[in-house]
Amino acid sequence: MRVLVAYYRNKTTFIQRDIDILSKHFEVDEIAVRKRSDIIKLAKKIKEADVVFIWFAGKHAGISVFLARLLGKKSLVVVGGYDAANVPEIGYGLWVQGTMLEKFLCKYSISHADFALPVSKFHEKEMLKIATPRKHEIVYNGVPDNFCRGEIGRKERKIATISILKKENIMRKGLLTYLRVAEHFPDYEFIIVGKPMDETPDILKQHAPANVKILGFLPHEELVDTLKKCSVYMQLSAYESFGIAVVEAMRCGCIPVVTNRGALPEVVGDAGIVVEYGDIENIAKGLQRAFEYSKNPDFIKKVKDRSWDFSLRKREEKLVKILRGV
Fold first, then answer.
1. How sure is the predictor about 160, in pLDDT bands with cuts at 50, 70 and 90?
2. What is the pTM of this model?
């Protein structure tokens, strides 16, 4: 079977992971749809494929699904974030920021694809507010088995959060809240990891207390080494369709402290601490509990075990089964 993986503009880590796992079972090609002229190339590649596997239900997905139907090909669309989001309080989501055409193409892709694949139960609900798919199944994102290799060792008085550093993420990822929480724990080091995309690091530095360190982008091995040393991982987001960084940190033995927003409570289950979004006092109390849990080997094991519920191997098994049956 020939599978074409289509995505909009940039290929993220989780898209590359899907390409890698699908390539073990199928003949895989890929295309980044960046501009209108790419549509002709997209049509040619869909014609050569048996199935088009589309990441995110954006305008590129609507066009891809339309072309697949026109050419008699099957299509699957991963509904995984901005596409089904509608969060007016922070101005986030296609259904807040998108044009009428973008909204139409999003809805079309979900309702006309042969299979829709939301990445969490939360995002399934968000998707169903928009459109009714022909068929759909939740397929969680996954972390590779070898993500965190070797002994974890002794944890230090460090907390981490991960976010691409761009202006829209200051609110969505709760970065200013993270800085305010850091003020309450001067004896701990608060780390921010993420690739800078604009002047966001400078904005954060203006508000950051002395115990905050902004590391920027870290290669895989350095990221894992950093997470191995951290006692706690915090995701103080206003919206997350899944939360892959949370699972990666849990795999490295970090106690997760997450907000009661999006899929975050679904991901951590009873192996983490859920706090009120934006409530500094409540978050600080939750973080204090997390410090206590980080001294408990049994709870750390529980956290790591929970992360295996979201293994890339499980995602691979589900995707291959769906693709072969579509």
1. very high
2. 0.94
